[in-house]
Amino acid sequence: NEDTGRPEVLSEVRGCEATFEWKTKVVCPPKKMECKFIQKHKTYDLRLLSSLTGSWDFVHEGTSYFINLCQRVFKGPLDCSDRASVCKKSSSGQVQVLGLVHTQKLDVIDDKVIVTYSKGYPCGGNRTASSVIELTCAKTVGRPTFKRFDSDSCTYYFRWDSRAACAVRPQEVSMVNGTLTNPVTGRSFSLGEIYFKLFSASGDMRTNGDNYLYEIQLSSITSSANPACSGANICQVKPNDQHFSRKVGTSDRTKYYVQDGDLDVVFASSSKCGKDKTKSVSSTIFFHCDPMVKDGIPEFSHETADCQYLFSWYTAAVCPLGVAFDGENAGPEYK
């Protein structure tokens, strides 16, 4: 087939020696690496930081950096290789690769998750640029920051404080009509009005020009302008196409998890993954306490490699979770 290709005769010498050329995708380096691993009986899942819809970018001293874990950089600079996980663009516009996807290595050192990429731009003396990303457990998804450059080894070091670096198993809780109950402590807590309200999340703009909005109602959508969204918890719509809609989160098999005062809600769906028809789409909302806002607004984060749609929601509604629900001494349950 097209991916396998066929061998072709390149040259032949006196009928005794033939040289063939075989163009095939079979020997191409992988464009996606494993993002979940287990070390010392603890599970680490970095899929939260692996985006199909963009990359993590920031500017340090005039230089722009683009990072995407476990796969290539999306929405990066034009000259960033489609095999690169880390790129930089100088203030003059020069683009350099700081590490390729297939060179990824994962490790845990002193409670930090270390992700390394190599085979970047040539540095002279048979050396190539490499990147070391140090992830430290934190309460939010976070963003990468520049740490330092080691000219002797031509290595760029980045720091990233993120919940993805935490090896924990959150406490699953039950939900009935907007009220959460912790089966361990027996305590209950109500999400109040945000459970029954209809919200809209924006921020999903794809490289092909598509723009999506997400209607979100935790109790299930009942009054959408798009009738096809009725009954879903999360529905993907296009603002300029009234005929497009897709349920990416439904209430059956919904899981609620509490960890250190934060609430994670995981929705399954029957919609098939466009990239892998054997998988179904799922959605996760990460709730964080923000006492400065009342309801807050959910925001689209990104789509992961395994068809998870991720959202962040900062709201005062979950602030009581920290002390009134977990208990003052409760902490994450480590594997």
Secondary structure: elements and pairs:
Layout: E1 7-13, E2 17-22, E3 36-39, E4 42-45, E5 56-60, E6 63-67, E7 84-89, E8 95-100, E9 105-109, E10 112-117, E11 122-124, E12 127-128, E13 130-137, E14 144-150, E15 155-162, E16 168-169, E17 171-176, E18 179-181, E19 188-190, E20 199-205, E21 211-216, E22 232-238, E23 241-259, E24 262-268, E25 282-289, E26 298-303, E27 308-315, H1 321-324, E28 333-334
Parallel strand pairs: 13-15, 25-27
Antiparallel strand pairs: 1-2, 3-4, 5-6, 6-7, 7-8, 9-10, 10-13, 11-12, 14-15, 16-28, 17-18, 17-23, 18-19, 20-21, 21-22, 22-23, 23-24, 24-25, 26-27
Task: Describe this entry's structure for a reader.
It holds the Pfam family CIMR. This is Insulin-like growth factor 2 receptor. It is found in: Endomembrane system. One of its GO terms (cellular component) is Golgi membrane. One of its GO terms (molecular function) is D-mannose binding. The chain is mainly β and 335 residues long. The protein has two domains: 130 residues, Cation-dependent Mannose-6-phosphate Receptor, Chain A; 164 residues, Mannose-6-phosphate receptor binding domain (Cation-dependent Mannose-6-phosphate Receptor, Chain A, Distorted Sandwich). The chain contains one helix and 28 strands. Strands 17, 18, 19, 20, 21, 22, 23, 24, 25, 26 and 27 form an eleven-stranded mixed β-sheet that branches. It has a five-stranded mixed β-sheet with strand order 9-10-13-15-14, with no helix packed on it. Strand 1 and strand 2 form a beta hairpin. The radius of gyration is 23 Å and the shape is globular.
